[in-house]
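Tip: read the tokens left to right.
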């Protein structure tokens, strides 16, 4: 299922009624997850053949992605995150990247543009995560929920 950002915001605002104890992760929470899963920030690495596995490979589901053509495209799903390539639906209602890319809204709204919020995700052609981007809130992406800390 793909959601626009107003739906994400509605969920966040009403989460204690809708699904108590869970929330959509912020940009900072996704960054922590990627660091834990072995992410190397692309702007610091710049080397696509870096020997460490990137977070994308560790978090992508083992199934439903295109058949790998080299080791960079292998999906390990090490932590049971099971990221699936649901693609996106743009602000015109056009579905894109279904079966090849994975995008997630964060709960973090843009501070520079009220019509945008932060998203991340995974490519099928590599083990890295998507670079962070602010996207139009009318676009639809997947969401993940994380358990509130106690």
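Filled-in amino acids:
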């Amino acid at each position: 299922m793909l959601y626009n950002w107003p739906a994400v915001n509605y969920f966040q605002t009403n989460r204690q009624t809708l699904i108590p104890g869970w929330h959509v992760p912020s940009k900072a929470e996704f960054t922590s997850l990627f660091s834990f899963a072995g992410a190397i920030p692309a702007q610091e690495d710049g080397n696509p053949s870096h020997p460490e596995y990137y977070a994308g490979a560790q978090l992508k589901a083992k199934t439903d992605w295109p058949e790998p053509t080299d080791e960079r495209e292998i999906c390990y799903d090490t932590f049971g995150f099971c990221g699936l390539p649901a693609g996106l639906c743009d602000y015109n209602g056009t579905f894109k990247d279904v079966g090849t890319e994975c995008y997630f809204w964060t709960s973090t709204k843009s501070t520079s543009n009220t019509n945008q919020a932060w998203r991340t995700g995974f490519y099928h052609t590599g083990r890295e995560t998507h670079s962070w981007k602010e996207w139009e809130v009318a676009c639809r992406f997947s969401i993940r929920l994380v358990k509130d800390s106690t």
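The chain has one domain: 3-14+23-40+53-147. The chain has a mean pLDDT of 84.
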